[in-house]
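Supplementary material to the annual report.
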Amino acid sequence: MSSFTLDGQTVTFDAGQTIMQAALAAGIYIPRLCYHPDLKPHGSCKLCTVKVNGRQASSCTYQAQDGLVVESNTSELNDERRALLQMLFVEGNHFCPSCEASGNCQLQATAYELQMMTPHYDHFYPDRPLDASHPDYLLDFNRCILCSLCIRASRDVDGKNVFALSGRGINTHLIVNAASGQLADTGFSGDDKAAHVCPVGVILKKRSGFRVPIGKRSYDIRSIGDLAEPGES
Amino acid sequence: MSDQLETASHPEKLRRVAIDPVSRVEGHGKVTLLLDENNHVRQARLHIVEFRGFEKFVQGRPYWEVPVMVQRLCGICPVSHHIAASKAMDLIVGAKQLTPTAEKIRRLMHYGQILQSHALHFFHLCSPDLLFGFDSDISRRNIAGVAEKYPDTARKGVLLRKFGQEVIRHTAGKRIHGTGSVPGGVNKSLTMAERNELRQDIDQIIDWSHDAVQLVKELHSQNPALYDSFGIFRANMMSLVGDNGVHDLYHGSLRGRDADGSILFDGVDYQNYGVLLEEEVKSWSYMKFPYLKSLGNKQGWYRVGPLSRVQNCDTMPTPLAEHERREFVAYGGNLPLHAPLAYHWTRMIELLSAAETIKELLHDDDITGNELMAGGERAREGVGVIEAPRGTLIHHYRVDDNDLVTMCNLIVSTTHNNQAMNEAVRQVARRYLNGREVSEGLLNHIEVAIRAFDPCLSCATHALGKMPLEVELLDATGHTLSALARSADGGFCTPD
Ligand code: SF4
Ligand code: FES
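Predicted assembly:
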């Protein structure tokens, strides 16, 4: 069977698997935010960046090959991951203390895992109004990290194209596909895959926040690094 | 009478003494004394920077987030805001009646909060003044000094507070800023293990609370002249009372009495607080001055908190506390006591009552039940009121059809007491500062009067006992004549 080494450990893989998929199958955690096992990888958040034979690459898109030497859990890479996390935290409005995704949020859990102690950079404090138009779901854009998981889920699984990214560079933002710009006017439904893939607290089921007590939330029970699969909300 | 002191006729000719911020009070406050050439107090004002931003923050937020978000108003009594907001949101989700488990878990959380806050206030913040004297050596007038001289008292204070925090942790999920109370109910009840753990210590906690009441009584009896008269002024009082006039800090209707103890109003549904109260704005203060509409802004101001509650109710709900209430009432000769230092006595009676109430709840099977949530017909507006440690706390919200908050009005305990605290400052300033050189000990008398109300001035978190004190002497043009600062370690220095 083909194999590569990840931080010195031998990892076997099936043909066609990425480094991320092989690592997950082996129960090894590589930090990630825009990866979901059910969706086509996108390679945009760069949290999963590893060194493959000494060169940086996104492990979620890089095909595993026999004999590769992969480094992931190094202080150099983790420093860079922390910097990426810090940028994500200051770009949006991530007010964990009153966020209902707290304890289930992959951004928060990854920051804990990588021991991010401060936001380091100045906060942008963007103004991003909520979309509460849908009777059962709420969009709180303040927390969007532009991972595009909802876009891929809606397009590739639900066949609906409810979500899209608009704007360029620092002005990139998530929009919904309706002339009114309102979620209520799209075909979105709570049964959609897109309703359940957001790694943070943007796509929220209404009227149910904080129903799970502290101590019982996903990452109260296990740290994100202990999970074989990314926690779904 | 002291109206004259609120606004001097020629302030431009006066010197200004500022105590900024008032130390050992949770938040920022500043006392300004305008002195004339002979050091006579001509003008006395308590400036309070109240943080009103939350009323704006929550606008446009989903209603279920509010009980968690508003807790950030205060690092000392976050549970009060958590519960008051939840009570308002109960009405939004149509939960007019909570399940027995939810109601009792919330009560338990609230009484845990009362216990920890009252213990903190008395033992950590006030016992140094009371045990050592207001003029005593500043370097020892803190909880560390108490621990040295009265180790047993300090230890009980610390452990009482800790127990209260444990009650909060088991009901809210965390010692501070938990999430236990949600619109329509709670998200957890107690496990048997949690209940048993708390049951183990509760008798000891009741004993210590009982000791605390005895300690306050002893202090009163040692120096009745001081305790009965320091900063005294007469005031109306207001609080929630439960069914049949029983002292209740979680739920009830509004009752008011005048300074003689006669009922002004009773059984008022707090949904109609707006019919009862008006808030006045004064140009020199950021904090509003609420008053009873029926009496007008001159006569209608009132006092809230333990001193009002214990005298406003007909009985305490628990036997030991009721015994102590009767003794307190007898001490006043069946007339209301108005001395600010009597706050401490009533606060400790409430501490005892909270401990006894917690014990009752811990022996109620509902506390481990599984029925956590209730609901009903959706409403667009709700008012939630509780008696927070410092007094009546009002949360009022409107929520639109998309579940977002469109309006929020909060009247926090300290705001209700605004006029009363100003009154206390004026009384003390007249009695203790008039015609004398300004000293730290004298200025601390003013602080003692303010602290008796246990104000959460900005409802912001501060390291307790670490607030520096700055005393400035300014002339009418704002020019500093002299300044003296007290740092957190008790040392004095001249600020730059
Ligand atoms: S809404 Fe959530 S899933 Fe969609 S792009 Fe933003 S963070 Fe990703
Ligand atoms: S998880 Fe690979 S780039 Fe985001």
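Chain A is about 20% helix and 15% strand.
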